[in-house]
Amino acid sequence: MALEESHVRRAAHLARLAISDDQANRFVDDLSRILEMVDQLQQVNTDNVAPLAHPLDATQRLRADEVTETDRREQYQRCAPATEEGLYLVPRVVE
Amino acid sequence: MHDQTVTQLAAALKSGELSSREITAHYLQRIERLDDKLNSFISVTAERALNAAEAADKARADGHAHALAGIPLALKDIFCTQSVKTSCGSKMLDNFVAPYDATVVEKLEAAHTVSLGKTNMDEFAMGSSNENSHYGPVKNPWDLKAVPGGSSGGSAAAVAAGLVPAALGTDTGGSIRQPAAFCGITGLKPTYGRVSRYGMIAYASSLDQAGPMARSASDCAHLMNVIAGHDVRDSTSAARGVPDYTENLDAPLSGLKIGLPKEYFGDGLDADVERAVREAVRVYESLGATVREVSLPHTHYAIPAYYVIAPAEASSNLSRFDGVRFGHRCEDPKDLIDLYTRTRQEGFGEEVKRRILIGTHTLSEGFFDAYYIKAQKVRRLIRQDFLDAFEDVDVLMGPAAPTTAFNLGAKKDPVSMYLQDIYTIAVNLAGIPGISVPAGFAHGRPVGLQILGTHFAEAQLLNVAHQFQQATDWHRHLPALAEENA
């Protein structure tokens, strides 16, 4: 499946990654070669094979729906770029 | 002292011949003297280490010390540590001090081991040469022109040069075994889920696994005794008992059935690496093992499947780096989208961006079935290859990498770098354990023998590796750099 610049642009937008025109061209080249290598997968017959998401076929364990964490907001916010009164600061979203 | 194993140092601590303070000061001094050449550490925490060493000596004096109390170790900079920077080799986390410790860090501290610092790595563990670090490449102590392998290249180089007796690494597609091979040390990737991933910065969550890197299999066994086990904070951690990994080390190997996957001895394997590996297999025959050829027919598809699954998981895992809650943030964002996109543009390096874009693309509408679901189906076939092989043999053996360490800057094209991991990557897809042990030299650089076992067969792998190290001395060789002004 050939990769076009529009695919790279769309992926960059979805991944919230700013890329320059130069970079976009380079990524088209790099990603095309990677996907060409990946396309070998299409040679494998996988009829009646179930996808494997977890190497041990384990399922998520359940636990009782009880609060186990203590409030450590101050500690967790110490590594944040900008906070105020316990809130994370971001550029204004609603005028 | 720097040529001693953890096992030897632990005996010296137990007898009182050495104190942890003496050992710790010795290794710190070696880091100070030699690491300028290697760049194997991102952070050295000398003062903390000396304090921890004193606490370990006191615990020993009080008579309630763990067998490894006072042993200096290093942590790949992917493990979260309170009060010490955890960068994951990225500009994105250059200012990040975690508010909690990884489970393995807690366990190592509870055993009174002494962390000397955090080791260099490919950014977010994405790489096979350690050239993708924000903090610059690590050099291979056997030849400063060569890479140490990746992504746990700092840990491998530091152990090989005798800057620390052992270290922790992580392995998503070969990141413990390949650098262990390139640097001439022993490195174990445990079964997926055997060691907790809590506090280990996630790259590809269904593949990532932490493990020990050391001078011997016996040392890896001692470390596994500390770090392995179920953790309620990691929902994928295996809820099953942990054996004493040292118990079985001395078991004889007579009757051991070894399989040599024919796909691991094909095109692309360096002839001198092959010679060293086949010589190692002959050592096993002399120890009473039998050898037969086996086939892992889907080997060729492991790298293609990995480069769908790992980037897909990575693109999702790395979405958390948004400039809001931790890590790098761009200057003067004009709106929220600008904050996200510029923060991520500035914070991530090239290889990380490539993998985020690949993962986002293959998961996106119109491509998901053809790439992601297809890769997961092939993943099942790859795992089945191993399960079928282990019906007939006890362990599989082959090279850890197709060549010895290549030169810095030698692999500019991403795909040629990816193909380096041909013998290690399928193991992560299958979730089985693997160990690389030193098996001689080719072109003056170390060769690693890789030994693979079925799920949760770590004790057997360690036994098989240990017996080889009783019969050979490849693991005792040190690079010339380690002996400079020793």
Biggest sheet architecture of chain A = 2 strands, antiparallel
- Mean pLDDT across all residues of chain B, rounded? 97
Q: Largest interface here, residues on each chain?
A: A-B, 54 and 78 residues
Main sheet overview of chain B: 11 strands, mixed
The tally of beta strands of chain A, per DSSP, is 2
The CATH level-2 architecture of one domain in chain A is identified as: Orthogonal Bundle
In terms of structural class, how would the helical and strand content of chain B be classed? alpha/beta
What percentage of amino acids of chain B are in beta strands?
5-15%
| Terminal residue distance of chain B | 9 Å
Termini separation of chain A comes to 43 Å
Reading the helices and strands of chain A in chain order gives HHHEE
Topology order of chain B in helix (H) and strand (E) letters: HHEHEHEHEHEEHEHEHHHHEHHEEHH
The CATH architecture term of chain B is Alpha-Beta Complex
The number of E-state strands of chain B comes to 11
Assign the structural class of chain A, choosing from mainly alpha, mainly beta, alpha/beta, alpha+beta, or little secondary structure: mainly alpha
Q: Compute the number of helices of chain A.
A: 3
What is the H level of CATH, i.e. the homologous superfamily of one domain in chain A? Glu-tRNAGln amidotransferase C subunit, N-terminal domain
Count of domain modules of chain B: 1
Subunit structure (chain B): Heterotrimer of A, B and C subunits.
EC number (chain B): 6.3.5.7
Catalytic activity (chain B): L-glutamyl-tRNA(Gln) + L-glutamine + ATP + H2O = L-glutaminyl-tRNA(Gln) + L-glutamate + ADP + phosphate + H(+)
Family (chain B): Belongs to the amidase family. GatA subfamily.
What can be said about this structure in brief?
Chain A has helices at residues 5-14, 21-38, 73-77; strands at 83-84, 87-88. By secondary structure, chain A is mainly α. The longest helix of chain A has 18 residues, at 21-38.
